[in-house]
Amino acid sequence: MKIIMKYKESGGFQLELHRSGQATYEYGYRMVLARFRAQYLDLEIEEDQFASLANDDNVDMLDEVSFDDNPNLPSA
């Protein structure tokens, strides 16, 4: 049991939880998009992942962030 607890505290386990959450979000987005397209056949969706949206303008964010491939996630 101690081995399992130690593994769950490791950075690798935390990173996998983060990745699985991201995959769940992306899969859910694709499912909603597919259902929308099936229901509204005559509508087109313009997808631009890099578009600036008005509701994002008030979010404080750095223009450039250094790359960090450290598997340790910051504490929430």
Give a verbal description of the structure.
The two termini are 26 Å apart. The protein is flat. 49% of the residues lie in helices and 0% in strands. The chain has one domain (1-58). The protein has 76 residues and is mostly helical.
SSE-based structural type: mainly alpha
Helix content: 40-55%
Counting DSSP E segments of at least 2 residues, the number of strands comes to: 0
* Major beta sheet summary: none
Order of helices and strands: HH
Strand content: under 5%
Question: Mean pLDDT, as a whole number?
Answer: 74
In the residues, how many domains can be counted?
A: 1
Number of helices: 2
Coarse shape: flat
Poorly predicted runs are none
Ends apart, CA distance between termini: 26 Å
Rg result: 19 Å
Short overview:
This protein has one domain (1-58). With 76 residues, it is mostly helical. Helices cover 49% and strands 0% of the residues.
Topology:
Blueprint: H1 2-9, H2 11-39
Which features would summarize this protein structure in a list?
single chain; 76 residues; mainly alpha; 49% helix; flat
